[in-house]
Structure formats: structure tokens, C-alpha cells
């Protein structure tokens, strides 16, 4: 996706979706050449936190997956890199549907300019915790192995109170600052507060 997604200058997003569970990761990128770096982060988390092995990667023919270094990395780690035929998004149906769902959710959430990236991340977070068609379990439950907690969910754009840092607090004065809720802080995958 082109255009600026975040106030931090992220212009693109990359989704990585487990074929069996449909659990999805979203990474926000400043440029497409960061794809391999974020794939390495994903691979490390999946292998170290979940003790799973990536065996196959299916991608479209986007230029971000063609550099020789990406192919070399996949070959070095025994990952089969499949590329879908050109101009055939139906060959990559799972990713195309997930991206479409994410974009539809983002569009429904947006009323504040410059918050596309944040809306994209929270949409992915919610979708991972909602059952898919024809399944009783959520992608999170299948991926992590336990039911997710939903008690911390809040409405996008609602009032949020943020504590003033101790070094900024005064005896007389506010202890919190009013903010707008735009998403959840990134945490380790296995911690679901």
C-alpha cells in the first residue's frame, strides 16, 4: 500500500499469515526494502516463542520479495519460497482476503487523519481474536494454544486517561492526561493482558 500510513512516516505494510490458523502479523514499513528485516523478526519470534518452524513462504510477485538476499535467506533456512503467477491475486487468496478485510476495517475506523497505520495494527489484533468462518476457535487460540482475554478491549477513538510520568507530576495538578485510544502497545506475543 502506498501513501503515508503513520505520523512516523511508515508508508507500507506487510502481512504474514499462518495458512492453518489464519493468525496474522502486520508490520509497518518505511520502505519495501525493510521486508527481509521484518521477515527475520517474524521468523525469530515464531521459532523462539512458539517453537514452530517456517517451512514455506508464498508471496506475490512484488519486488520486495525478489532480491537475491531474500532468496538466499530462505534457502539458507530451508524455507521454500513460492511465488504466485503474475496478475493472479486469486493464487494468493488467503493474503488477498486478509488484506481486504484489514483495509475495510481500517476504513470503517478512520475519522482521524494520519492514523491509518494504528488502525491497521488494531484491526489485525482484533481479527486474530475473532473466530473464522467454519471454525470454533480463534486464530489466536489455534496459534498460541489458549483462549485470548478480551477484557482489555476498548472502543477505537474513546477517551483514554494516561498517567503523567512521576518526574512530571506536581503536588497540585493533574495526575493524568486526556488522550484518544488508538491501539494497544506491542507486547511479547505470549502475554495477553
From TrEMBL:
Q: Which GO terms describe its molecular function?
A: nucleic acid binding
- SUPFAM superfamilies attached to this UniProt entry: Ribonuclease H-like
Pfam families reported for this sequence: rve (PF00665)
Mention one GO biological process in which this protein takes part, according to its record.
DNA integration
Recorded hits in PROSITE patterns, A to Z, give: INTEGRASE
Gene3D superfamilies (alphabetical)? Ribonuclease H-like superfamily/Ribonuclease H
Q: Which residues form the Integrase catalytic domain?
A: 1-147
InterPro entries linked = Integrase_cat-core (IPR001584), Retrotran_Ty1/copia-like (IPR039537), RNaseH-like_sf (IPR012337), RNaseH_sf (IPR036397)
Question: What protein is this chain from?
Answer: Integrase catalytic domain-containing protein
The protein's organism comes out as Paspalum notatum var. saurae
Amino acid at each position: 500500500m502506498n501513501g503515508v500510513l503513520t505520523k512516523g512516516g511508515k508508508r507500507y505494510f506487510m502481512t504474514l499469515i499462518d495458512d492453518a490458523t489464519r493468525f496474522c502479523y502486520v508490520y509497518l514499513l518505511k520502505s519495501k526494502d525493510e521486508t527481509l528485516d521484518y521477515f527475520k523478526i517474524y521468523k525469530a519470534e515464531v521459532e523462539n516463542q512458539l517453537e514452530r518452524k517456517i517451512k514455506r513462504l508464498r508471496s506475490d510477485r512484488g519486488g520486495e520479495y525478489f532480491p537475491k538476499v531474500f532468496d538466499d535467506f530462505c534457502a539458507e533456512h530451508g524455507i521454500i519460497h513460492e511465488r504466485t503467477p503474475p496478475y493472479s491475486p486469486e493464487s494468493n487468496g488467503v493474503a488477498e482476503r486478509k488484506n481486504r478485510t484489514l483495509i475495510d476495517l481500517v476504513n470503517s475506523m478512520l475519522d482521524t487523519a494520519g492514523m491509518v497505520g494504528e488502525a491497521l495494527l488494531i484491526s489485525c489484533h482484533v481479527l486474530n481474536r475473532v473466530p473464522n468462518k467454519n471454525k470454533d476457535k480463534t486464530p489466536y487460540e489455534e496459534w498460541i494454544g489458549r483462549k485470548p482475554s478480551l477484557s482489555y478491549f476498548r472502543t477505537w477513538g474513546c477517551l483514554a486517561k494516561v498517567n503523567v510520568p512521576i518526574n512530571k507530576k506536581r503536588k497540585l495538578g493533574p495526575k493524568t492526561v486526556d488522550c484518544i485510544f488508538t491501539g494497544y502497545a506491542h507486547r511479547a506475543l505470549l502475554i495477553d493482558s
